[in-house]
């Protein structure tokens, strides 16, 4: 993913979720967590961190991890145009059993404000929210799928201005989650990636920064292949499978449980993150600002 961005015109950095969405799913093992990040080069330019947490009180489940601009090859993190697909999962073998689940997320970046001759640098959550879904064990739910429009989560807006560093202001934004809908090649790439047998032809066709000779393989590929061989089950696709197996490359917390048409998302988002985290005074930014910027954050 390129770390430069053309900021001559206003640009929105939008976070959407491909899986899970606000619906009812059948129980599944090692489910993925898949986000899309619009205008990812700009997000990298500002520097970002996305924290996610999946939990269920009634199913006794907890898992969390992060994405940021520095772990492009630790997790599945590839772009098509200016949209990045960020894919992670729970730990190998963990199940989502019947129950109610919450996917919490936060978007962290660095902002600044001028204070006389100095600049106040603040790093903290500038966007956060929750998405709710349920899991059933009677087969009446939806199987795992990467198709269809993602659910909108949140947005940060950046535009040129007379200031020398990005600052947060309030501005309206129209969500555009369907603009990041995965195409057939991208779905195939993710399906086979999570099955442990990545279709590199599909991945090369679906993403700009996957080239011939690259190896796109997740941490638990061998375990997934072994599981398929033991049960005599060929690689499945997300169009109708609830048994896609995925990895947690670089997980940051543990699960406490080792078993396991577009709709309006039942999501909550807010901008009440603690922007005081990592505050510091200094005369300039720690990263080069090519153009004068103002960053705007909004939720719908």
UniProtKB/TrEMBL annotation:
Domain DUF7136: 11-186
Region annotation Disordered: where it falls in the sequence: 221-279
Pfam families to which the protein is assigned, alphabetical: DUF7136 (PF23584)
Listed Polar residues bias regions: 224-233
Record's compositionally biased regions (Low complexity): 234-256
Protein name: DUF7136 domain-containing protein
Organism: Penicillium fimorum
Lineage: Eukaryota, Fungi, Dikarya, Ascomycota, Pezizomycotina
